[in-house]
Design a protein that fits this description.
Layout: H1 11-42, H2 50-73, H3 77-98, H4 105-127
Length: about 130
């Protein structure tokens, strides 16, 4: 029987991988927010597409974070990507509730399912990089 590189999934590997992915996800979101502020100061009015821009930037951040998570973990990328997607989605859902945004539970669950699928896809691709 061949020896495996990473025979088991331990908690330290999970936490370091997911937090590395979260770091990259939030960095991308911070860059996106800065770019949106600069374009608004220049005079480009993107306020009609505000919700769409935020939603797609969060999806992109989830995929980037899942790529990093899968790359760092080198094992079970689908699970790591899914954990990252769930943590990012829950964080934004809770922050939205705290800030008083009116949220539709059905739409939130659909967005969460999309985030999980994108996280799984990013994690699987991240392992193979």
């Amino acid at each position: 029987m061949a020896k495996q590189e990473y025979p088991a999934l331990n908690l330290r590997l999970v936490t370091t991988s997911v937090f590395s992915g979260l770091k990259y996800s939030f960095s991308l979101l911070l860059i996106t927010i800065i770019l949106l502020v600069v374009t608004y100061w220049i005079g480009w009015d993107w306020s009609n597409y505000e919700h769409t821009i935020y939603e797609y930037s969060i999806y992109t951040a989830i995929v980037l974070g899942a790529l990093v998570t899968g790359y760092k973990s080198k094992t079970k990328g689908w699970l790591m990507g899914m954990l990252l997607a769930i943590s990012v989605w829950l964080l934004f859902f809770i922050l939205g509730r705290i800030w008083g945004l009116e949220q539709n539970i059905r739409a939130g669950l659909i967005n969460g399912l999309i985030a999980i699928i994108l996280g799984i896809l990013g994690g699987v691709i991240g392992i193979n990089l």
